[in-house]
Specification:
Length: 246
């Protein structure tokens, strides 16, 4: 018997009112992600990648369809319940790190734990463990502006995993980094997937980053399109290159 997918989307749609009309960045999407998977989500700008991540992470709610994540029917959750659920189940890594500038690395990583019923000592143990895991414990008292981009992203990843969520989502996590830092971040994310068993859904424009994932999916105008594997990657990379140079 096969295990339940940790993420199950059924005819998932998201629409926004814009001006007089309605736009639908996600359209009746079906997707299963197995526990422990590492999925790279690719596709042109505006194809709905961030919209899909936000639904999976419980940051936003679908307009229509079914969405079961980590055993919870989150499409039906209230905003408050969703926020609560998210703080336990999902870590989010952003392209621009989203660290709080007036807090140290330590305090940034501690933030998600302040929502949980934990004492200071327990928080300290967890923050130290997360900072060590991402290899940045020696910078715990640095402010974001005193860190390189790669170091900031490590702190952001520590913040995403400090609550020990089963799922990590990352939206272009290397999009603002030089090639060497990007490689380090990809190795770190791969370790979290392989050694800690985190289910990882990562949006990327970069075929090299996508190659770390076990599965590559392609979104186009809010629909998953076939074309997994090298051919699809090359096709998307070519299109992204065109967009960049246009
Ligand atoms: P991607 O991450 O693939 O570049 P997004 O998911 O961010 O694409 O956006 C898909 C489409 O949905 C875009 O046309 C975008 O303008 C629109 N969109 C996203 N979020 C909102 C919002 N909060 N309100 C209105 N339109 C939105
Ligand atoms: Mg996006």
């Amino acid at each position: 018997m096969s295990e339940q997918p940790i993420i199950a989307c059924r005819r998932l749609s998201k629409s926004y009112r814009k001006g007089g009309g309605v736009i639908t960045p996600l359209h009746a999407l079906d997707l299963d992600v197995r526990r422990g998977e590492f999925v790279a989500l690719m596709g042109p700008s505006g194809s709905g990648k961030t919209t899909l991540l936000n639904l999976i992470a419980g940051i936003d709610r679908p307009t229509e369809g079914e969405l079961v994540v980590a055993g919870a029917d989150i499409a039906r959750f209230s905003r408050a319940r969703l926020a609560d659920w998210r703080s336990v189940n999902v870590g989010y890594v952003f392209q621009l790190y989203n660290l709080v500038p007036v807090l140290t690395a330590y305090e940034n990583v501690e933030l998600p734990l302040l929502l949980r019923p934990l004492g200071r000592r327990e928080r300290h143990t967890r923050v130290q463990a997360a900072l060590s895991l991402v290899g940045i414990a020696d910078r715990h008292d640095h402010y974001p502006r005193q860190l390189s981009g790669g170091q900031e992203q490590r702190v952001a990843i520590a913040r995403a995993i400090v609550t020990d969520p089963a799922i990590l989502v990352a939206d272009e996590p290397t999009g603002d980094l030089d090639a060497d830092s990007a490689t380090e971040i990809m190795r770190l994310l791969t370790r979290l997937n392989q050694e800690l068993g985190k289910t990882l859904v990562m949006v990327t424009h970069d075929a090299g980053c996508a190659s770390y994932a076990r599965t590559r999916l392609f979104l186009e105008k809010g629909v998953l399109v076939p074309g997994e594997g090298a051919r699809g990657t090359a096709r998307v990379a070519a299109r992204v290159a065109q967009e960049v140079h246009a």
